[in-house]
Target: Response regulator transcription factor
Amino acid sequence: MSTLIVDDEERDRTWLKNLLTTSPSLQGELPQPIHEGQDGSQAVELATKHHPKLVFLDIKMPNLSGIKAAEQILKLLPDTGVIMLSNFSDEVYVRQLWKVVPPNGVFGYVLKSASDEQVVEAAKAVLSGDCWIHPGIARVIQRTQNRATSLTPAEYEALVCIALGMTDHAIAKKLYLTEKAVQSRLKSLYAKLGIPGRSESHDTEFNQRCRAVYVSTRRGLINQSELDDWEAKMQESKADVK
Amino acid sequence: MSTLIVDDEERDRTWLKNLLTTSPSLQGELPQPIHEGQDGSQAVELATKHHPKLVFLDIKMPNLSGIKAAEQILKLLPDTGVIMLSNFSDEVYVRQLWKVVPPNGVFGYVLKSASDEQVVEAAKAVLSGDCWIHPGIARVIQRTQNRATSLTPAEYEALVCIALGMTDHAIAKKLYLTEKAVQSRLKSLYAKLGIPGRSESHDTEFNQRCRAVYVSTRRGLINQSELDDWEAKMQESKADVK
DNA sequence: ATACAATCCAGGGTTTCTCCTGAATATAAA
DNA sequence: TTTATATTCAGGAGAAACCCTGGATTGTAT
Model:
């Protein structure tokens, strides 16, 4: 029974380690020893080796993201308590995490802007079998549950494509659809994002396509590093065709 | 003669404070005492009060950004050594900083991913009247100097507008131009960003408008918080018209 | 079985964006 | 003064994006 801390920034690792070991209210409760890793693949590796009870994972890491690392760890060791540490309250991550964590899984989600007390609180909660979710994320989760505003996989796919700058035609080819189907997806996407079209206000204010990307980024539905991943995937599948 | 540390994250402030006070190679050289602030307006306030020799400024802060704070501080106290601390190597910030810092000003720019040694090095350099720029930023600066790839103010303005999702028509109205002029700006923008148009490749791959936003964000020419500032400004000027 | 939502698709019409050529201005460098 | 460069504009053509209505197909919940 040990604890695992995985973050690519050494500064954050030592901060967290100090916090956990010196906190009075965690004395004796924190599984020892504490192992450390620097990226997602190390996280999986160290977890399979030491079977930790508690794992802290940064989301944004090289090689393997914290989310994917969590997925693999939970698949192998479902009883592990996973606490995600993130700089952002991005909806993408909440979306992804929701799919990865088993329904009865125990996990925490804390932003790096959290106070030391909150981090300790999260650790204690997860150790005693509860979940701990950062207050700032509560409303994000609400939104992902809400039918009227949350995006379907189809809409999300379309969103990513336009954010990468693809044309309707290119999207259709990539997803094996007609252009009409693509436009249909986009139409419902714009509606859910609340972007007014030509019809609604007399003079057109917005280019819906770009506006959709802007508000989605602001809401954290997409972010640059996610898009870059997609871009890389696109490149690959393009190479396959050749 | 004192030192000023301004960052909205307490964690980073204490980290930096510890680093500066405990570093052997800075003993005796660091101006004492050390004052701390949490945002840009406090930075200006504390600087006018204590006339520090050295100021550490985080770029992303509430109320007043680190860049704007630096501008005001350097206007009042041109001999202050300013060191910018940033999480990102975004081109926007380099652009802005270049305008704000006087030609003979002394400043540093270090990324938060820097090692402790680098931060100390930067501090020593600035204290002895030199500039210190993070290696990762060198090539960004190169790009901002290069005529062929750097954007003119006109192009940059257009870029921000399309990133916010405005139509040609809306942009023209906002900037007091014809739509044709806007399109002309966009055309040269696309060219500088190296985005292929309909003519260049047989089948159109990209929606240039969205693609431009994507690559610009990736290059750090624009970023979300900057765009949000612009969005707020747009709202204001819209209210003025009423 | 019925209802519902999500999806794909079609046709046809309107607007916006992009492309091309070309011209007039202004400003700064040679 | 000439030469470049940046910039604003025009007209007209074609492509892409958006609007509306509506049908067919799935799957899922009641």
Remarks:
- The radius of gyration of chain B is 20 Å.
- Residues 167-169, 179, 183, 186-187, 190, 197-199, 207-209 of chain B lie near DNA strand C (CB under 10 Å from a C1').
- The mean pLDDT of chain B is 84.
